[in-house]
Amino acid sequence: MANTKKIDFVILGLLSHEDLSGYEIKRRIDTTLKYFWGASYGSIYPALADLVKNGFAVKQVIESSERNKALYSITEEGHKHLSIWLEDPIEKDELRYETMLKIFFGNEIGALKTMKHVEAFEDKIAIELINLEKSKDILDSIQDIDDTHLYYLLTAEFGIKTYKSYLEWCILAKDKLRKRSLKDD
Amino acid sequence: MANTKKIDFVILGLLSHEDLSGYEIKRRIDTTLKYFWGASYGSIYPALADLVKNGFAVKQVIESSERNKALYSITEEGHKHLSIWLEDPIEKDELRYETMLKIFFGNEIGALKTMKHVEAFEDKIAIELINLEKSKDILDSIQDIDDTHLYYLLTAEFGIKTYKSYLEWCILAKDKLRKRSLKDD
DNA sequence: CTTACCATGTAAGGCGTTACATGATTCA
DNA sequence: TGAATCATGTAACGCCTTACATGGTAAG
After folding, report:
1. Probe site for chain A from B11, B32, B94 (most A CB atoms < 10 A)
2. pLDDT tens, residue order, chain B (185 aa)
3. Average pLDDT for A119-136
4. What would the DSSP string read from start to end of A7-31?
5. Which of A2, A32, A65, A150 has the largest count of CB atoms under 10 Å?
């Protein structure tokens, strides 16, 4: 209760969809979840070991001729643990937007230099929006194959909507900063 | 360079606008910056002490008849330190949206229970949107009094735009989850 | 043959939250 | 008189990132 180490549930959630190795978990987080979550190997592997120790997951080493690989599966206990957490109300959503911080204090360096951050932000978001829309297109076409696709689609749509509004904001911000920079001269 | 403890710059940024006490800094963060940043006393007070130790801020104890209060001011060195950081490219914007995590793994508990999270999210965002719009209205009316208002306005507009798109997404998500819940029965 | 990717982990250390500790003042 | 707010800090502890360490395989 006191301890809600989120990474445990992120992993358990991914394992509820399919068996995965630590490496694959990292990739899922970096691609599918990257729009609202992040994690490094330094948190994934130890969490995986804990999960096994607590009986929420089991590890099976696949001994192939080429390469050894550790595949993790969720247990019945793990499903229960995950479900309880999923039903609990959300504790905290947080964003730490360094971009906004630098915008907020922009007066210190002026409109022109602040605009650089807006432009960099715009470029980054535009690229990620393209990726997200590709994912959504794929999901739309295969939606009925797997029950989990609806939920995946929902988070993709969340990303698309917010990213689009970010881009709108960038246009507005650039405009206002441009006008200010003219007054500054 | 290696050390980019963001809280230092958050405080320095706030002090670049006006002299503040630790308590007031906390309040600024919880009201004005809450849409894109957060911090607790346990990070603010030690950071303030470090800032003074490094010559980026000075502390003056105001001995009033009623109550003692420590007011911090930014130094010339502090301005320099802040400016350098402000001009550096953004390292990382991150969001950790527990709500999206619970949506993503929603299949585990089903559409109806997942919808509860969407509704709670919607309620929370709707309230915060009202606050943000109030701030924006005030800022619009006093924009020319202080050069920093433009930047404040920009971040408020960012919050408003994203929150509005969150609310749109909530409607869409509720609709899709409702439809799924009918199939589930 | 060398770069990129697959693959698994550990160690150190930073950063920050929560909880604790304390106490004055204001307002209903 | 009791709750809320003002006000300042510390201690413990937890979580996570970064960097390190290691090595196989695939593709160009």
Report:
1. B94
2. 335 799 999 999 999 999 999 999 999 999 999 999 999 999 999 999 999 999 999 999 887 655 678 999 999 999 999 999 999 999 999 999 999 999 999 999 999 999 999 999 999 999 999 999 999 999 988 877 889 999 999 999 999 999 999 999 999 999 999 999 998 77
3. 95
4. HHHHHHHHHHHS-B-HHHHHHHHHH
5. A150
Residue of A nearest to B178 (CA): A150
* pLDDT, tens digit (0-9, with 9 covering 90-100), for B47-71: 999 999 999 999 998 876 556 789 9
Q: Which of residues 65-104 of B touch A (CB under 8 A)?
A: 79, 82-83, 86-87, 89-104
Q: Which residue is nearest to nucleotide D16 (CA to C1')?
A: A43
Average pLDDT, chain B: 93
Nucleotide nearest to A45 (CA to C1'): C9
Phi, psi (deg, nearest 5) at residue A141: -80, -25
Enumerate the nucleotides of strand D whose atoms come under 7 Å of any protein CB.
6-12, 14-20, 24-26
**pTM > 0.70: yes or no:** yes
Q: Alpha helix (H) ranges present in chain A?
A: 6-17, 22-31, 41-53, 76-87, 98-104, 111-142, 149-184
Q: Is the dihedral of CA B52, B73, A117, A159 positive or negative?
A: positive
Which segments within B37-87 are labelled E, that is strand?
57-63, 68-74
pLDDT of residue A102: 98
Distance from CA of A18 to the nearest CA of B (A): 12
Residue written as tokens 């964003």?
A: A95
Mean predicted confidence (pLDDT) in A35-51: 97
Structure tokens at B34: 């809450």
